[in-house]
Amino acid sequence: MIVLSELGTQLKEARIAKGYSLEDLQDLTKIQKRYLAGIEDGNHSMMPGAFYVRAFIKQYAAAVGLNGEELLEQHKLEMPVNEPVARSPMPSALASRNRSVNRTASSEAYAEFMPKFLVALFIVLILAVVWYFYSASTNSGSPNLPEDEGDGISYEESAPAAPEEPEEKASEEPVEEPAAEPAGPESVLAVEETQGETTTYSWQGPADRQLEIAANGPSWIAATDENQEELTSGARVMQAEETETIDLSEVDFVRLRIGDYSNVDLTLNGEPIEYEQQLQPQNVVIQFTNSE
Known about the structure:
Residues 141-186 are annotated as: Disordered. The protein is of the alpha+beta class.
């Protein structure tokens, strides 16, 4: 049992001052009444896990007009210790991240090589055309054939005209090649910083952005934009096999509060977001920049 008598009393007094009953608060926060009573009494043994104590206290505080972060900071010595987190999934996540980096590096190397190759090919073709006409002009300046072979003069004059047409077509090929190169920049997700429970990412990509949240076990989930407006259907504990898709096309910033990261998969426009920290709970912040 975790005893938070001062914190529980402070929250209860704020609730009474607002005129809320526990049933009213249950409707507002979607937290079961028995959990709310446990927070007020300092009895958290019935909670799903230690990290839910913090999450429920913050939501309780927000509902009665208090700052949950400040309350937890004031009573941090009374908070339960976070449960140890299994680190076994990380090698596969790192391998996936390395494959993504390798694919990006390969694409960048190909994009750098192709223009140089096309320029070199174009130069070779120009040199071939110049050499051909130079050779033709040299042959035309040679001594005339003997009079008894005068018919050969018309042959020399007409001979260069035949190969000119294929050479002109060949010289046009490098101009058509760049049209086959992929158009538009790829989306890029990068880690900007990690500070405390928060990891900040930057995203540069298309303006049409869809974030999918998929739970494979129970975990607290909340998502807000830069104006602290709720983006999900409601901050809550998501259960296994529950998913929710958020349209982020009109926002510049999203902040996710995740209780148990090992039970939640995040995917942005089909690309998985890898966790940089193994904390329960933790915050994931993504700042968006539209590609030109």
